[in-house]
Write a structure and sequence with these properties.
Order of helices and strands: HEEEEEEEEEEEEEEEEEEEHHHEHHEEHH
CATH architecture of the largest domain: Sandwich
Largest sheet: 7 strands, mixed
Number of helices: 8
Number of domains: 2
Structural class: alpha+beta
Oligomer: single chain
Strand order of the largest sheet: 4-7-2-1-11-17-16
CATH topology of the largest domain: Immunoglobulin-like
Length: about 350
């Protein structure tokens, strides 16, 4: 008898567990699909918003899917629905406070199949005014499991998120109205516009977000580069700079020396030009003491000037005893060669013996 009672207790327990599992399975099966990707992009204008929604749907139910509904809290216009092939058919059901866009698939998608479509529309329902500022706000509720969710809001040109508004309550406390919510956003810049991005993963069905942005005229966004863009920018800048230096170098050494002197003198400082002109008058070579006398510069000032010009390759300095000999660089200045021909020695003089050369002529 005890064994029979124990048998019935075990049987009832097993049936109870089976019923719980069956009920759980029924509860989960109400979601026939999930989203592997769900992207909402809102391009905010002065008086309207242009939205683009990209959905990648996966059928996880036993029957093929032929459509999906997208619910917008407000009125929409200029609606377009498409997939990778082209435009798709759709229906719009307008209710008092919302619009339902029923997107018809190009062909049914079977179990475990994925399908990507894009919904575009415009609306005036998400923006309004707060004093001199503008606010953007809407509410999104996940219709099913979303594995990867991205929400981005692009503000109008030269608009920025305003400082949170502070108000004193009748009780004496302080109330702060946030100008950006949720606060865990990633803020970027694109040209003259600010881009606010939220990224989430593995969102359950029924998850809700109400993004809010209060913005107004502000400072122009600064140009910014990401790490990869910065590296590319530096490489391009280095190549361009090297190319410019190479072209200038080749051009400089192709011009005659006289023109090169004129080019160099135009880029020298006044004191440097004065010193170089004094050396040019002296034939491109003189002692540092002589240059000091010609220019009237102090010894310390002339030493610094000579050091800078030597470093830049305009002149060079040689040490002879306790004296510094300054010479203009050959690339900068080449003294004119004498055109006088060497004196010819008569043939009779070359044929004379040393004794004949010493004896006086008769």
């Amino acid at each position: 008898m005890k064994d029979l009672k124990l048998f019935f207790i075990c049987l009832i327990s097993v049936l109870f567990l089976i019923s719980i599992a069956f009920a759980q399975d029924i509860g989960d099966s109400q979601y026939q699909y999930e989203f592997t990707k769900y992207s909402i992009s809102a391009d905010v204008g002065v008086d309207k918003v242009a939205e683009e929604i990209v959905l990648t749907i996966k059928n996880i139910g036993p029957t093929p899917m032929t459509k999906v509904d997208y619910i917008v809290s407000g009125k929409v216009f200029d609606v377009k629905v498409s997939d990778s092939t082209g435009p798709l058919n759709y229906n719009i059901t307008r209710e008092e406070h919302s619009s339902i866009i029923s997107c018809l698939f190009r062909k049914p998608i079977g179990t475990n199949e994925e399908y990507t479509l894009t919904i575009r529309f415009q609306t005036t329902s998400f923006i309004g005014r707060i004093n001199e500022n503008t606010f953007f706000k809407f509410t999104f509720t996940s219709p099913a499991l979303i594995k990867n969710f991205t929400l981005s809001i692009k503000l109008p040109e030269y608009m920025w998120i305003v400082t949170p508004e502070k108000r004193t309550l009748p009780t004496g406390g302080l109330s702060v109205s946030p100008s950006l919510s949720p606060p865990d956003a990633n803020i970027k810049t694109e040209a003259n516009r600010f881009l606010i991005v939220w990224d989430y993963n593995n969102l359950p069905a029924g998850w809700e977000i109400s993004p809010t942005v209060v913005f107004g005229p502000g400072a122009k966004p600064q140009f910014s580069l990401g790490p990869y863009e910065f590296i590319i920018f530096m490489v391009i800048s280095f190549i361009a700079g090297s190319l410019i230096i190479y072209i200038l170098f080749r051009f400089y050494y192709k011009v005659p020396t006289e023109e090169r002197v004129d080019i160099t003198l135009t880029v020298l400082k006044e004191d440097e030009r004065k010193a170089i002109e004094a050396m040019l008058v002296a034939g491109g070579k003189m002692t540092q003491r002589e240059l000091q006398d010609k220019t009237g510069f102090s010894k310390a000032k002339l030493s610094r000037l000579v050091f800078d010009l030597e470093k830049r390759g305009v002149l060079r300095k040689d040490r002879e005893g306790r004296t510094n000999i300054l010479m203009l660089s050959e690339d900068f200045y080449k003294p004119a060669k004498s055109e006088e021909k060497p004196k010819e020695i008569p043939k009779e003089e070359l044929e004379k013996t040393p004794e004949e050369k010493k004896s006086p002529p008769e």
